[in-house]
Amino acid sequence: MKLYDAPRTPNPRRVRIFLHEKGISVPAEHLDLADGDHRAAQYRRLNPYGLVPTLVLDSGEAISESIAICRYFEALHPEPALFGAGALDIARVEMWNRRMEFHLYQPVAHAFRHLHPGMKDFEVPQVAEWGEANKPRVLATLRLLDGELAGREFIAGDRFTVADITALVAIDFLKPARIAVPEELGHLARWYAAVSARPSAAA
Questions:
Q1: What whole-number distance in Å separates Cα of residue 18 and Cα of residue 74?
Q2: pLDDT tens by residue, the chain, 203 residues
């Protein structure tokens, strides 16, 4: 088994945090995206989109997409239950993880990819108007989260889940996307300090 990783990119980080929370160690091969390792024919045979991460099983089968990889390991190692436990909890975690993915993580990525000069060779064409249009969407979700976190410890309830992983990685991605978290969001700041202090956040 091998995980194709790229250390400075957010999607592989989601998998690394997830694996750390599970106590799972997987051999990794780091790709240099600046050198185009992800575009090489050998890697494209594993992942035709040329994206990271990709998990290659001992059978040779490849699984890509960070959440698909996390679900694979959740099924193999159910505890701790990072996708929820029981029908309602699983649905709640799924709801919040998708909200974090669609309304926070993706808008931050759009802002970064369409506005950062370093991404001009990766996002062709860069559309600055689309990058700017996503900034208020990010801020709206941060304010919504602040209100939600006034009444609970974590994104989806009283336990750390994959929804917290997605939100943490998205918020850490705000700095390169050049989006500032409003200072008045105290509940969000409390949550962020707690999840950032977890050992897995350094993965």
A1: 9
A2: 999 999 889 999 999 999 999 999 999 999 998 888 888 999 999 999 999 999 999 999 999 999 999 999 999 999 999 999 999 999 999 999 999 999 999 999 999 999 998 888 888 898 999 999 999 999 999 999 999 999 999 999 999 999 999 999 999 999 999 999 999 999 999 999 999 999 999 99
Question: Pick from 76, 42, 78, 79: which is nearest to 62 by CA?
Answer: 42
Residue 120, token pair as written in the block? 């001009």
Check: pTM over 0.90? Answer yes or no: yes
Which H or E run contains 188? helix 186-196
Place of tokens 């064409």: 125
Q: Which residue has the tokens 């160690």?
A: 25
**Alpha carbon distances (Å) from 5 to 79, 85, 94, 114, 197:** 24, 29, 24, 23, 23
Name the residue range of residue 136's domain.
87-202
Q: In sequence order, what are the residues at sequence separation of 6 or more whose Cβ sits closer than 8 angstroms to the Cβ of residue 160?
A: 21, 80, 82, 154, 195, 198
Among the three residues 25, 45, 76, which one is the final residue of a domain in this structure?
76
Domain total in the chain: 2
